[in-house]
Amino acid sequence: MKKFASQNDLDEKKISFDEIGKDLFAFTAEGDPNSGIIIGEDSVMIIDAQATPTLARQVIEKVRSVTEKPISHLVLSHYHAVRVLGASEYKANNIIMSGKARSMVVERGQEDWDSEFDRFPRLFKGHQEIPGLTWPTTTFDKTMSVFLGKRRVDLYFQGRAHTAGDIVIHVPDSNVLFTGDIVEYKSACYCGDAHLNDWPGTLKNIAKFQAVALVPGRGDALTDPKKIEDALELTEDFVISTFKSVSKIAHKGGDLKEAMASCREQC
């Protein structure tokens, strides 16, 4: 079987740590999964944990370069292994994800871990430290607000997209968004358990925030309104083009090989 391109991507990526608003930071690494940092009055919230405790320590090192406040909350935008399995390193008392995302951990958490471990060997260095599947301490259905002292952080389920349980994180005092893999910037969207027909509508809901900065799941942190618009449009185009191409083959009773060939031609 032909290998995934990611299995041969073994070069270390350059890490960037950018302030995108007051006491708001983006941890990015040239297309690897991003993490977000929200510093509140009395503590810190991390958005997405990385794939292993080893990678989580890189995030923590950057956090400690700007604050010594304790990490009290870890918010997981969805359930995929590369986002959640580094959770134990943060020692956060509060681990939050949507109720649907938790149900997906139950249903396919181990299956996804096994799959991503095979597809992304570079991201799973130090995998021996992972204590097991990551489980939330708190879940919600539609909306939830968390207070880091006086700073409020709002969590929203805006609709199915990259998975059935994706959430976005909004910091209203700065109008900054963290979107997980609902939005990508110059990075292909993984669609293994996506809801392609719903995803464009979810993107439109995100656009309504008119955020001044946005941290996508992969790619650069965006602090320019034009780049934010581009990221939303590029993601939508990828999703619609893929769905349109593949659905035609599916409706004709075609197989996966035909669908992939059609996508290569038209996407």
Could you name the key traits of this structure?
6 helices, disordered N terminus, 267 residues
What is this structure's SSE topology?
Layout: E1 16-21, E2 24-29, E3 32-39, E4 44-47, H1 53-64, E5 71-75, H2 81-84, E6 94-98, H3 99-119, E7 138-140, E8 143-148, E9 151-156, E10 168-171, E11 176-180, H4 199-207, E12 213-216, H5 225-251, H6 256-266
Parallel strand pairs: 4-5, 5-6, 6-7, 11-12
Antiparallel strand pairs: 1-2, 2-3, 3-4, 8-9, 9-10, 10-11
Helix pairs in contact: 4-5, 5-6
Characterization of this structure:
There is one protein chain. By secondary structure, the chain is of the alpha/beta class. Helix content is 31%, strand content 23%. It is built from 6 helices and 12 strands. It has helices spanning 53-64, 81-84, 99-119, 199-207, 225-251, 256-266; strands spanning 16-21, 24-29, 32-39, 44-47, 71-75, 94-98, 138-140, 143-148, 151-156, 168-171, 176-180, 213-216. A 7-stranded mixed β-sheet has the order 1-2-3-4-5-6-7. The protein has a 5-stranded mixed β-sheet with strand order 8-9-10-11-12, with helices on one face. The radius of gyration is 18 Å and the shape is globular. Mean pLDDT is 92; it is low at 1-5.
